[in-house]
């Protein structure tokens, strides 16, 4: 009974857990899951036999087994060497090929080529662009196509490609919706990208997977996969919410706060995301892109500035460099004293 109870208690606590990573609702996350499973099974082809043989050898050649075959002079087997080296080598080659292919096909910067395994992305499909800003400690989502923004709430229609543009206001964070796609880091003054698609309607969790300070544990949001009608109603709700995310309001919003409830802004200041990336939301601040452009223009109009000077090729010295031809006889050289080469005693 004690053993049964000890096994039932963990099962009771784990009953509410969901293996979201192993049961995703987005095609990108599904491909990533398949890659993890394939790599794990491939490695288990070596791990399981090795563990089994360790137990087998320990049992067969135990001290009490007097019938075990004993060959103290044995030290080499060509067949065994082939098995020991060939099998892991083939697995490493296969695993490397699959990992290389998967890494390129699942590159977060690469636009997706299919909705799911059986449906490619239509040629006329327009991705839904979402601009993501990691704040302390909340998430800001801007929908430039529809002109509104939300805080800690994200939604997308089912089977429509999503193109995320991500940055951070102050410190590094990691944007992660396990059911949608892999995590992608957000960094201040930089923009990263993530392409994904959601294939099933539902209410999913999203959070920051990189520690970023005191409010990190509450830096979570909800991601909703909706049908077209539900997404249209969600868009209308945000447009009717009122409030404007102006640059002044953004500077108030970016101040550190914890456990922030969902917020909605019916309109957004033009170019706000680009200003966040270039660190020029505050009035009178020069954007980093303009600063770099001015530096590049200045270098273009100032040849040689900022570049190491190139050494000029040296030429061999000639007799003409001395001003006159060398004397034919040493006695012809004018001395600084009365000494002469022909009379060294006068020195």
From TrEMBL:
<keyword id="KW-0679">Respiratory chain</keyword>
<dbReference type="InterPro" id="IPR002429">
    <property type="entry name" value="CcO_II-like_C"/>
</dbReference>
<dbReference type="InterPro" id="IPR036257">
    <property type="entry name" value="Cyt_c_oxidase_su2_TM_sf"/>
</dbReference>
<feature type="transmembrane region" description="Helical">
    <location>
        <begin position="35"/>
        <end position="59"/>
    </location>
</feature>
<keyword id="KW-1003">Cell membrane</keyword>
<comment type="similarity">
    <text>Belongs to the cytochrome c oxidase subunit 2 family.</text>
</comment>
<dbReference type="InterPro" id="IPR010514">
    <property type="entry name" value="COX_ARM"/>
</dbReference>
<feature type="compositionally biased region" description="Polar residues">
    <location>
        <begin position="331"/>
        <end position="347"/>
    </location>
</feature>
<dbReference type="Pfam" id="PF00116">
    <property type="entry name" value="COX2"/>
</dbReference>
<dbReference type="InterPro" id="IPR034227">
    <property type="entry name" value="CuRO_UO_II"/>
</dbReference>
<feature type="transmembrane region" description="Helical">
    <location>
        <begin position="80"/>
        <end position="100"/>
    </location>
</feature>
<keyword id="KW-0560">Oxidoreductase</keyword>
<keyword id="KW-0732">Signal</keyword>
<dbReference type="GO" id="GO:0009486">
    <property type="term" value="F:cytochrome bo3 ubiquinol oxidase activity"/>
</dbReference>
<keyword id="KW-0472">Membrane</keyword>
<keyword id="KW-0564">Palmitate</keyword>
<dbReference type="GO" id="GO:0005507">
    <property type="term" value="F:copper ion binding"/>
</dbReference>
<keyword id="KW-1133">Transmembrane helix</keyword>
<dbReference type="InterPro" id="IPR045187">
    <property type="entry name" value="CcO_II"/>
</dbReference>
<dbReference type="GO" id="GO:0005886">
    <property type="term" value="C:plasma membrane"/>
</dbReference>
<keyword id="KW-0813">Transport</keyword>
<dbReference type="Pfam" id="PF06481">
    <property type="entry name" value="COX_ARM"/>
</dbReference>
<feature type="domain" description="Cytochrome oxidase subunit II transmembrane region profile">
    <location>
        <begin position="13"/>
        <end position="110"/>
    </location>
</feature>
<protein>
    <recommendedName>
        <fullName>Ubiquinol oxidase subunit 2</fullName>
    </recommendedName>
</protein>
<dbReference type="InterPro" id="IPR011759">
    <property type="entry name" value="Cyt_c_oxidase_su2_TM_dom"/>
</dbReference>
<keyword id="KW-0449">Lipoprotein</keyword>
<keyword id="KW-0812">Transmembrane</keyword>
<dbReference type="GO" id="GO:0042773">
    <property type="term" value="P:ATP synthesis coupled electron transport"/>
</dbReference>
<dbReference type="GO" id="GO:0004129">
    <property type="term" value="F:cytochrome-c oxidase activity"/>
</dbReference>
<keyword id="KW-0249">Electron transport</keyword>
<dbReference type="InterPro" id="IPR008972">
    <property type="entry name" value="Cupredoxin"/>
</dbReference>
<dbReference type="InterPro" id="IPR006333">
    <property type="entry name" value="Cyt_o_ubiquinol_oxidase_su2"/>
</dbReference>
<feature type="region of interest" description="Disordered">
    <location>
        <begin position="298"/>
        <end position="347"/>
    </location>
</feature>
<dbReference type="GO" id="GO:0016682">
    <property type="term" value="F:oxidoreductase activity, acting on diphenols and related substances as donors, oxygen as acceptor"/>
</dbReference>
<feature type="domain" description="Cytochrome oxidase subunit II copper A binding">
    <location>
        <begin position="125"/>
        <end position="237"/>
    </location>
</feature>
